[in-house]
Amino acid sequence: MPSSNRFELAAAGGPAAGATTEVVVVPVHGHCMDCRHEFDAPDPSPACPACGSLDVATDGGDEVILEWLEYAGPATESDDHAELVPPHTHTH
């Protein structure tokens, strides 16, 4: 299931229902233990593209970057900027 669909499923029925996202899934980095080929792949459990081996050590691939979020929900009293962001308290 694509990550944006996961977001929509999680948001359904809540305050973010109807929001849309653009998500970038970071590829996994693979190292084949048989032929030593180094590669990147979108699959979290990849086969080596050079030799087909399943004996692959992987690193990363579990990062998700939220690139964009759009939400146009109903206006409420809490939409006032002063209520959402606490006042600036330190002096610089």
Describe the protein's topology.
Layout: H1 3-11, E1 20-25, E2 28-32, E3 38-41, E4 56-60, E5 64-70, H2 81-84
Antiparallel strand pairs: 1-5, 2-3, 2-4
Low-pLDDT segments: 80-85
Biggest sheet details: 3 strands, antiparallel
User: CA-to-CA gap between the ends?
Assistant: 47 Å
User: What amount of the residues lies in strands?
Assistant: 25-35%
Order of helices and strands: HEEEEEH
> Can you give the helix content as a percent range?
10-25%
Q: Counting H and I runs of at least 4 residues, what is the number of helices?
A: 2
Structural class: alpha+beta
Mean pLDDT over the full residue set: 76
Give me the Rg, rounded.
21 Å
Shape: elongated
Number of strands: 5
User: Strand order, biggest sheet?
Assistant: 3-2-4
Describe this structure in words.
The protein is of the alpha+beta class and 92 residues long. 14% of the residues lie in helices and 29% in strands. The chain has two helices and five strands, in the order αβββββα. The protein has helices at 3-11, 81-84; strands spanning 20-25, 28-32, 38-41, 56-60, 64-70. Strands 3-2-4 form a three-stranded antiparallel β-sheet, with no helix packed on it. Strands 1-5 form a two-stranded antiparallel ribbon. A hairpin with a 5-residue loop joins strand 2 and strand 3 (38-41). The N and C termini lie far apart (47 Å).
List keywords for this structure.
elongated, 14% helix, 92 residues, 3-stranded antiparallel β-sheet, 5 strands, alpha+beta
Concise synopsis of the structure shown:
With 92 residues, the protein is an alpha+beta fold.
